[in-house]
Amino acid sequence: EEVTESDDEDNLSSVLHQRAKMPWRACGKYLSAAGILLLPLLLLSQLLKHTVMVAIDYCLALWTEHAISIKIEPETKNCSQCMEFDHSPYSKVFSILCCLGIVLCLVTSIAVEWTGLKVTKKLHSSLLNKIILAPMRFFETTPLGSILNRFSADCNTIDQHIPATLECLSRSTLLCVSALAVISYVTPMFLIALVPLAIMCYFIQKYFRVASRDLQQLDDSTQLPLLSHFSETVEGLTTIRAFRYEAKFRQKLLEYTDSNNIASLFLTAANRWLEEYIGACVVLIAAVTSITSCLYNKITSGLVGLGLTYALMVSNYLNWMVRNLADMEIQLGAVKRINGLLKTEAENYEGLL
Fold first, then answer.
1. What residues contact 336, with CB distance under 8 A and at least 6 apart?
2. Residues 234, 293 contacting (CB under 8 angstroms)
3. Structural domains of the chain, ranges and CATH numbers in brackets
4. 138 exposed, middle or buried (CB, 10 Å; 0-12, 13-18, 19+)?
5. CA distances from 156 to 7, 137, 145, 335, 343 (A)
6. Can you give the pLDDT at residue 11?
7. pLDDT tens digits for 187-197?
8. What is the percent of the chain with per-residue pLDDT over 70, rounded to a whole number?
9. Cα–Cα distance measured from residue 95 to residue 269, given in angstroms and rounded to the nearest whole number
10. Kindly report the CA angle at 284 between 280 and 290, in degrees rounded to 5?
11. 315, 276 in Cβ contact below 8 A?
12. CA dist 226 to 118, 216, 238, 249, 263, Å?
C-alpha cells in the first residue's frame, strides 16, 4: 500500500508538472507555419506600434507640463505681462504621432489576420494530404469522429481564436513591459523593487495559469448541461405538463444553474485576485518612489503623473496577459492534436497524385 501511494503521488506530481508547462512545441509549430517573412513583420509592427503609443503619452506629459509652467511663472514672479504659450509645435507632433499610430494599428491587425490565414491553410492542406495518403489500419484504429473533429473544431480554433488571442497576448505583454519601462524611466528607484516583484509575478502566474485553465474548462463543462436541459425542457414542455413534472425539471434546472454559477464565481474571483493584489503592489511602489523622487530630485509633475498613470494600468495589463496566456495554452492544444496526426506515416503509393 505504501508503494502504491508513493507511485500515485509521483504520477500526480508529474501530471501537475506537465500541466504547468507551456506547450512550446505546439507554439513553435504554429509560428513556423507562419513563414520566415511574416513573423518578423508581425513582431516589428507590434513593437513600433507600442513605441509610438508611449511616445504619444510622453508628448502629452511634456505638453501639459510646459503649458502649466508658462502659466505659473508670471504669477510667482508678479509679472504684469503674461506670456502666451505656443501650442502649435506640440499639436503638430501629437497629430503626426497619432496618425502614425493609427497606420501601425492597421498594419498590425492585417499582419495578425494574415498570419492566422496562412497558418490555417498550411496546416489544413498538410493534414488533408496526410489523411488521404494514410494507410487503412489508421482508419480502423482511429475513430471517424476524432478525424472530423480535427478538420472542424480544431481548424476553427486555429482559424478564428488563436490569431485573436495571439494579438491580445502580444498587446497586453508589450503594454505591461512599456508601462514598467516608463515607470522605471520616471523613477529609477523602482528598478530596485522590480526584481523581487518580477520573481513574485512569475511564480504566481505559474500556478494561476493551471487554476485558470481548469476553472475555464469547468465553466464550459457545466454550461453545456444547463443549455441542453433548457432546450430539452422547451421542446418537451407539453409532455412535462401532461405528466406534471414541472417541479422536477425546475429543480434540475436550478441545480445546473448553481453548478455553472459556482464555477463562474470562482473564475471571476481568481481573475480579480490576480488583478487587485499585484496591481496594488505595483501602484504602491510606484507612488512611493515617484513622490520621493519628486521631493528630492525635483522631477516634473508631468512625468510623475505619467508614471502613476501607467502604474494604475499595469494591474489591468498584467491580468489580461496571464488570462490570454492561459487561453493560448488551451487553444494550442488544437495545434498539438493536428501535429499528432501529421506524424502519421503515409502509405506507399506510386500512382499519380
1. 23, 25, 26
2. no
3. 29-73+86-342 (1.20.1560.10)
4. middle
5. 39, 27, 16, 11, 21
6. 47
7. 887 788 778 87
8. 85
9. 41
10. 145
11. yes
12. 37, 16, 20, 12, 13
